[in-house]
Write a structure and sequence with these properties.
Blueprint lengths: L21 H12 L6 E4 L9 H16 L3 E6 L9 H13 L8 E3 L4 H13 L3 E4 L3 H7 L17 H12 L9 E4 L14 E5 L13 E3 L1 H11 L4 E5 L6 H11 L5 E5 L11 H9 L14 H7 L3 H11 L6 E2 L2 H15 L1 E3 L1 E2 L2 E6 L7 E7 L9 E7 L1 E5 L19 E4 L4 E9 L5 E9 L16 E2 L2 E2 L4 E8 L26 E9 L11 E4 L3 E5 L9 E6 L5 H7 L7 E2 L1
Parallel strand pairs: 1-2, 2-3, 8-9, 11-24, 13-19, 17-20, 22-26
Antiparallel strand pairs: 4-5, 5-6, 6-7, 10-27, 12-23, 13-16, 14-15, 16-21, 17-18, 18-19, 22-23, 24-25, 25-26
Helix pairs in contact: 2-11, 7-8, 11-12
The structure holds adenosine-5'-triphosphate and magnesium ion.
């Protein structure tokens, strides 16, 4: 029987009844007071890199909350910065959001679609005396801006007449001025305690081709001038974003109020940070560009493309995001907690198989040569409907090198000379001797088996202290298996000695490639993306590098769960440590 379980991803998202959170409370209140009579959210990635597990939190929140209230969610590319954006990123983001199980239906938008409207709105502000063309350089603007304790200084160009501003802005658009020579600024308050309100730049000159609008524009709106207005155009009710935008909210509100357009509500939540993990797209790009990982979808990367390749399920990620909840302070979540959720999900649905990563030959001397029989093996003890399969057994087997010791230390109960153990779904075997190579290493173990123990129990009731897995040598499938450790050795990868950068914390052992693994033959037709539990070793998924008859597996996660221990230890203290 060929067993595949590649359709794990197809399940529709269970929008889980997440614990109460303050964003939901605000939505409920807005519906009650009638501020809005519907819920419409958006997920607004900038296409300047691949999405990562932090984005998954934002995706689950925006799509999940809207769904909970029977609302809608738009996917909108925040593509106002042409120099770093790329079509490859657009495509990967579309793929990743749908993989997460969310549907924006026909509402895929680009902020760049609104460039004409944004330009008109800028003109409207100029006409209202609320914006002016400034000739100060970027450096001068910074100097004039003041500090948290000192008010800013007004630009000498602040009092330019409306007519002159209109003409200069038109000439900026027509390409008459070089990059950086002029900006359009909102005229708000240079003494505001909020630096974002001190006449923020709203348009800059940038002679750069845009991946969608080509050479049409040489001036581009700043994020703050594009985001709220894009939300408004799309009639977004709740614009959910991360905490760093909290100080931008007054500006967000100012623009929609000055323009007199539909007023969405911006709500901020805490960014997801994970131990041993970097989330900055700039740094992830550096890893890719320097060849320190195999690409954006390297299974060690925290990108959705990476963890998908590694074998994570969208359901596990959604469960994790639900469990961590939302708050108003940035904290740090243990990577072990994410791993706990993937284990929990795969435990329920991954089919069990046997595979040997570091093979050691075992010859059963009293088993007839040339004979083979089929042993019955259970596919998933957690799911009766997964049924069972046949695993071939014969005279020569492979077991893990680790499961044999010629001179066993105390507490080692697996195979050793004179010791009897159970072969999973097989027989009891007793070790009778070993064969060594010239270097004195054990290369073959000899055993006898007890035919009366077929299936794993002795009729006389005698017990063995361990059960080990195995693969029949004659039937084994050769495979490559890639084992992973954390990409970084330090909890905070940014924590580096003076003069070094985060790459100093890369774990040299993050990838280990095993090329001589032996798997049970049922895996011969496993399709890319399928996930299995290799008994006693962990969860594994089939890598797209696999070729017919030569599968490549990634270890998604080992079996041992360290999170529950951590959880117990910190049961009294809160989940997060506030940074
Ligand atoms: P970076 O700063 O690394 O470039 P970003 O936040 O600018 O990342 P965007 O593409 O602008 O990336 O993000 C899209 C959305 O995802 C935003 O609403 C942002 O707040 C949210 N987001 C990004 N990173 C995280 C994170 N670590 N946790 C939760 N939400 C996040
Ligand atoms: Mg951003």
């Amino acid at each position: 029987m060929n067993i595949t379980n590649s359709n794990l991803d197809a399940a529709a998202p269970e929008v889980s009844a997440s614990p109460s959170n303050f964003i939901r409370d605000i939505i409920v209140e807005d519906l009650k007071t009638g501020r809005y009579n519907r819920v419409h959210t958006r997920f607004p990635p900038e296409p300047n890199g691949y999405l990562h597990i932090g984005h998954a939190k934002a995706i689950c929140l925006s799509f999940g909350l809207a769904a909970e209230f029977g609302g809608q969610t738009n996917l909108r590319f925040d593509d106002t910065n042409p120099s770093k954006e790329d079509l490859e990123y657009v495509q990967s983001i579309i793929e990743d959001v749908s993989w997460m199980g969310f549907d924006w239906e026909d509402r895929l938008f680009y902020a760049s679609d609104y460039f004409d409207q944004l330009y008109e709105w800028a003109v409207q502000l100029i006409k209202a005396g609320k914006a002016y063309v400034d000739d100060l350089s970027a450096d001068e603007i910074r100097q004039y801006r003041g500090t948290l304790t000192q008010p800013g200084k007004e630009s000498p160009y602040r009092k330019r007449p409306v007519e002159e501003n209109l003409q200069l802005f038109e000439r900026m658009r027509a390409g008459e001025f070089p990059d950086g020579s002029r900006t359009l600024r909102a005229k708000i308050d240079m003494a505001s305690p909020n630096l974002n309100m001190r006449d923020p730049v709203i348009y800059r000159i940038l002679h750069a081709e845009h991946h969608r609008t080509g050479a049409k524009w040489c001036i581009y709106p700043m994020y703050d001038f594009a985001h709220g207005q894009s939300d408004s155009i799309e009639k977004i009710t709740h614009s959910i974003c991360t905490l760093e935008f909290e100080d931008h909210r007054p500006l967000y509100n100012w623009f929609v109020e000055q323009l007199g357009i539909f007023h969405p509500r911006q709500i901020e939540f805490d960014r997801l940070n994970l131990t041993y993990t970097l989330m900055s797209k700039r740094k992830l790009l550096a890893l890719v560009e320097k060849g320190l990982v195999r690409g954006w979808d390297d299974p060690r990367m925290p990108t959705l493309a990476g963890i998908r390749r590694r074998g994570y399920t969208p359901q596990a990620i959604r469960n994790f995001v639900t469990a961590i909840g939302v708050s108003k302070t940035n904290g740090m979540i243990e990577l072990a907690m994410l791993e706990h959720f993937i284990r929990e999900d795969l435990n329920k649905r991954a089919l069990r198989v046997m595979g040997v990563l570091h093979p050691l030959r075992v010859v059963i001397d009293n088993y007839p040569e040339g004979q083979a029989e089929e042993m019955n093996a259970i596919n998933n003890p957690e799911d009766e409907s997964a049924g069972s399969r046949k695993v071939p057994f014969s005279r020569v087997l492979y077991i893990e090198q680790d499961d044999f010791r010629e001179n066993p230390p105390k507490q080692f109960y697996r195979l050793s000379p004179g010791r009897e153990v159970r072969l999973r779904y097989g027989y009891f075997i007793t070790c009778t001797g070993v064969v060594k190579n010239d270097a004195g290493e054990v290369v073959e173990v000899h055993c006898t088996y007890d035919p009366a123990t077929r299936g794993g129990n002795a009729p006389d009731g005698r017990k063995v202290k361990s059960t080990i897995h195995w693969v029949s040598a004659a039937h084994a499938l050769d495979a490559e298996v890639r084992l992973y450790e954390n990409l970084f050795t330090t909890e905070d990868p940014n924590d580096v000695p003076e003069g070094q950068d985060f790459t100093a914390n890369l774990n040299p052992n993050s990838l280990q490639v095993l090329t001589h693994c032996k798997l049970e033959p049922s895996l011969a037709h496993a399709t890319a993306g399928s996930r299995y539990q290799f008994e006693r070793l962990g969860y594994f998924s089939v890598d797209p590098d696999s070729k017919a008859g030569q599968p490549v597996f990634n270890r998604t996660v080992a079996l041992k769960d360290t999170w529950q221990k951590i959880e117990k230890r910190s049961a009294a203290s809160p989940l997060k440590t506030t940074s």
